[in-house]
């Protein structure tokens, strides 16, 4: 088995993982990021999420700055969208979404190219098509992860690990406790059609969505080998139904172009953090706050982000960021999206 060592080992190259890796490398840390897919960005790109949600509170006040704002501005580099004019974009900007809030759409493929460029600019080492299969601890302190790819197995040691897998996989492999939640089957996919009913992309290309947030489409996450298969196939079934139910469909004008390359599970696993945020924590102030999170669904008072919500109770030397930080229920809904993850 090969052995390599880094200052910071980031596990998962979604938007939270790329943010963590670039931030660490910019501070002079020797950094590597490991990703099981061959795309960067996680749900934002492989999952065709397509929308960089707001950096503002809905009342006209920007509350997220720093790297999250930098990334929003760069997310439109390779695509048809712009940052809204109200928030510093060009005159007549087409953001793809309401410009009442500081948000914009992006091309999923284009965003992947930007994320890769940012990792290269920061001199972050990248391993794609690489699965994390084990995590080694000493006295409850994470000291290494073992990965596998076409070169075989490699053990990566680090001074600090960041779990941005979206499922808290590394913390779980290390023996840490994980919280689960229900997920709704609401598959997003790209379609060629004449009339969009979800998100317009460009010309006749649109992002569409099937399903709804209802008990009919709700699935409790299970640690079972067939769960993801069942979930994804149900998503495909809904998409097929869209085309099967259209009478006399002209398939030259209306057809699917691209499906998600990963299961569109929004809430898979959250760490049991030193402080796990829940509904009662809305509007609560924390002495160890590292930022604010807006509610992307409606104008509202932002949430504080305590540093303790990134720290597992039972495993040392690892932080969890993005969708697997310590948050439950409504808090998880607020904290699971791109700008807060970043």
Strand content: 25-35%
Q: What's the shape?
A: globular
Radius of gyration: 20 Å
Unreliable parts: none
What are the secondary-structure elements, in order, as H or E? EHEEHEHEEEEHEEEEEEHEEEEEHH
Biggest sheet record: 7 strands, mixed
Q: What structural category do the secondary elements indicate?
A: alpha+beta
Tally of DSSP β-strands? 19
Helix content: 10-25%
Distance between the termini: 33 Å
Mean pLDDT, to the nearest integer, reads: 93
The number of helical elements comes to 7
Nutshell version of this structure?
The chain is α+β, with helices and mostly antiparallel strands and 342 residues long. The protein has helices at 15-26, 66-74, 108-121, 169-173, 227-244, 329-335, 338-341, and strands at 2-11, 31-34, 51-52, 104-105, 125-127, 131-138, 141-149, 152-163, 178-179, 182-184, 188-192, 199-202, 205-209, 218-220, 255-259, 270-271, 289-293, 303-306, 318-320.
Folded structure, characterized:
The chain has 342 residues and is α+β, with helices and mostly antiparallel strands. Helices cover 20% and strands 27% of the residues. The chain contains seven helices and 19 strands. The chain has helices at 15-26, 66-74, 108-121, 169-173, 227-244, 329-335, 338-341; strands at 2-11, 31-34, 51-52, 104-105, 125-127, 131-138, 141-149, 152-163, 178-179, 182-184, 188-192, 199-202, 205-209, 218-220, 255-259, 270-271, 289-293, 303-306, 318-320. Strands 1, 2, 5, 6, 7, 8 and 19 form a seven-stranded mixed sheet that branches. A hairpin with a 2-residue loop joins strand 12 and strand 13. It is globular. The two termini are 33 Å apart.
